[in-house]
Structure formats: structure tokens, C-alpha cells
Amino acid sequence: MDGIRVGKRIIGSEAPVTIGWENIGRVEGGPVKRFIFTWFQPVALFALIAFWYYAPNSIAKASTAIGIGIAFKALLLGLEWVNPRYDSWRLTWKEMVTDLFYVGLGYTVLRIVDGYIGSDAIVHAIQHSFDWDKFAWFTGLPLLVQAFLISFIFDFGQYWMHRGMHNWYPLWLPHSVHHYITQFNINKGAVGNPVELFLIGLGIGGLFDFLPRAALLAGAISLGVGVYMHINVRFNTPRWWRFVFNTTEHHSVHHSQDFEASRSNFAGIYIFIDRIFGTCVDGEAEVLGLEGGRRMAIREQMTYPFTEGWRSLKERFGRSAPAQPVAAE
Amino acid sequence: MNLRFIDWIWHVRGSVPLAPGQSEDEAFERLDPLFRQGGTTHDRAEATLTFTKKDQAAQDKMSVFDGGVLAIENRGEARVLRYHLTSRALLFCFLAPLLFLAFAQLTVVINKYQKPDSPASESAKEKAKKDEVRPLNPIDKALGAPAPEKPDKDKKKDKDKDKSSPTPAYVFAALFAALYVIGRVLEDRLVRNLFRKRLHEAV
């Protein structure tokens, strides 16, 4: 494979990656289907924003947000069935059970742990040690500006954390497990070693004082854009959307088996952060994973960062094996 | 205890009749591509085929199974392919509700022993800050967004919010129980159809 030069890098020399918007697949079918899968993403995002902007205080609550998130993902699961991006990414019973296991961990035990040592706990501690009143001006900004800033600050932090994970071995170990996924489905974002799920959740957005409605709006933007990162649905994503926001296409390149391709598109929501720092590659990939697409079982996903880390430590610092005696001639 | 009484949980057994006049060799030849997948090793001895799978691909048609034995037997006039397959995924899904029930119990126990934050620990300044109603930006007022409410005086609500609820764990326990039933029936049918198709349809 020759690969294609993107900036200073050769992308796609190890595994197939499609580069350039003009080369990626389009929605196939009748005019109604094409219309729906062209406009679905922007309409859903604006509907979510409008809902949270105008919802009365009695229903503008976190519990409503969780309910909407679950219902939206159920709808997208249906879309995966109707209009898959790739047949080779079809959801099977086993994949669904595996993905839901991680979703379940996120809603239960990880939530408990995060309450003690996660981002919220750290922010809470910091806010108690300093006088953060100087951030009070933040609540006077228009709601949508607050919402954008909350999601942007979080995503900016996540961009560097994610880029760090791909560049520093101790952070790569827990993140690598997520890169063993070999296909995209709606819940694949939850799959990964729990240590990583904790790291990726660290953010400084919580330091700012904001109106609750702004936080809910930020959550809506994050859902309305981020939900498509790992999804098996073919959309004709509008040009402006893919210039500003992360898409399935961008994230599939990031998950490609091609090493250079995987070192691109680190942002979660705003792909323009990648554009600013020169790590954006516009395109898509079907062949995903590590080690030639080896599917990692849950047991190994849980232990891999520790076993692999131990192995590397032993290799680096362990006593080298005694040299084999050479037989006398 | 005889494991056979419970091993149906993760063992799938069944049989598919061979096409009339089909030989053992022909039958196994037709099934052969199923065992030429990544992570699969197989061994054939006359009328029996044994296989194991490790790190099988997600789209492997038999990915849910980790090993098994296929044997061709004579049943009177007819010949049948009998199979006995094992699946760790089915066992895992069967046990997953127990794990989530344990998480639910853990949440209940933590809530019971967690010392509630005493309201006295909150400084007067913080309290004042909490009680103050922060105004909306004029742009949002003009666009008609509802104004923020005065913070609820009822502290009980806040305290409850700090506690985690065991409900999600119960929901996931139920979800995995349902998924197990679906998977046990579905995968049984899918693998029978897969073998039947391979043995009977033109390859």
C-alpha cells in the first residue's frame, strides 16, 4: 500500500484509509431516505438546543437529560439497522452485550468511584481552597455562549489528554484497550479499560460557575455531536458540520489500523481544534483496530494495561537473561 | 452435582440432518470455511470435528462460541450432524445480572454508611451565593428563555442528590437477564440455520 500524503505525513500505508470528502461513500436509496440522512444530524442538534433553551425549569433537569440521552441512542440504534455505514460493522448479539456491559459500568460502579476521585471531586476540592468568585462574570454571558464555552473548554482539555494518551506510553496503556474495537456501534464509545474512562472524564470545565441551564445546553451539544463518533450509520454530513464538528468519518480514521491515521482527529466534539493544531485528517476508514484487528475479550480488556505495563517494565528494568553458552567447536 | 443440569446455560446442543446421500467428507468440506476464520483452530478425525476459538472476530458467524465438537452420526437410514458448542459470552451474560445486583447492593451500603455533609460546614458566604438568584443575560430574556429559579430552600433534596441511586444497577440487571434469554434462543437458532444452510444449499 502506498498511502496518501497529508501534510508531512503518509496516511494509509499500513491499512486502507479513504482520504478526502469527495472520495467517501454517500447515502444510497430514494429521495426520502437521502433527505432524512442528510438533515438528521443538524435537525436533531437544533431540536435538542431549542428544547433545553426553552424547557420550563420544572423539566430542565439532569434526569430529563439522561432520559433524552437514552431515547436518542435507542433511536440511533434503529438507524444503524436501517442504514448501516458498513455491513462489516453490523451489530451482533455478542457485540451488543459487550458494549452494554461497559455502558452499565459507566452508570453504576464508575459513577460511584468518580464521585470520590473523579473530576467533580477534584474541582469541588479546588473550589473550596480558593476564592473563585472572579469567575462569577461567566453566569452573566448569554446561555449559548456559556454552553459553547463549557463544552469547548472541556473538549480542549480532552483533546490534549487524548493526544497525550497517543504519545506517552503510561497513558497509552489504558487507552489502547479502546483502540482494540474492530467496528463502530452506538455504544462503542463506552468500551475501554475503566482506568481510561476515568482519565478521559477529567476536565476543568467544572471550575467555572455557570447557570444550570447552560450546563444542560452544553450536555445537549455534546450529545448532539459526540454521539456520532462511534456509530454505524451512513449520513451525508453537511460541509459546515464536518468542518466544525467531529464526525464518524473523522473518528473512523482515528481508529484505523493504519498507525499514522490513528494519530489524528483527537478532539471529541470540535474537530476545528484538530484543524488548529494540524492533526486533522478528513476521510474515513472501515478496517479498524490494533494487531491486525484482533478482537479483545472483556477479561483481557480489564487486565491488559496492567499485564502489558508489567511486561514492559520487566523488559526495560528486569535482569537480562544470561547469554546462552556457545558450544565449543 | 451433575453439571448437565445447568450446563445448558452456556452449552448449545443440536442436530441437523445431512442431505440425502451426503458423505462425511462432503459435509465437513461444506462446513470447512466456518473454521477457517481468524483465531480458530480445528481438528478433524474421521466423523468428528473439534474446534476452539480465541479472540474471534466480531463478524465471525460463530463468534459467540469458543469451542465445540461436531460429529456425524447414523440415525437409522438418515445421517445427522450433531453439534455441541460452548459459549463464554452466554455464561457471562447469564451471570451479568448478578454482578449488577451486587453493584446495587454496594450502592445501598455506601449510601447507608456515607456521612452526610453537615450544613454547618458550608460557609456563610457560600450559602449566600447559593441563595442568590443569578439573572439571565438580556439576550436570553429577549429570546424568551425561562429565568433561573430561586434555589430550593429544602436542603433534603440536595442531600438526596449527593447519594447515588441503585436504580440504574437494577435496570442493567434486568436488561442483561432479558438479553440472556434473547441470546440463548437467537444464537441457538442462528447456528442451526448456519449449519443447515451450509450443508444443504449450493455453495
UniProtKB/TrEMBL annotation, chain A:
Residues 149-279 form the Fatty acid hydroxylase domain. It comes from the Bacteria. This is Sterol desaturase family protein. The keyword Calcium does not apply. It comes from Stakelama flava. Keywords: Membrane, Transmembrane, Transmembrane helix. PANTHER family: STEROL DESATURASE (PTHR11863). The chain crosses the membrane at residues 35-54, 60-79, 100-123, 135-156, 190-208, 214-233. It is found in: Membrane.
UniProtKB/TrEMBL annotation, chain B:
Residues 116-166 are annotated as: Disordered. The chain crosses the membrane at residues 89-110, 169-186. Keywords: Membrane, Transmembrane, Transmembrane helix. Residues 123-134, 149-164 have a biased composition (Basic and acidic residues). It comes from the Bacteria. This is Uncharacterized protein.
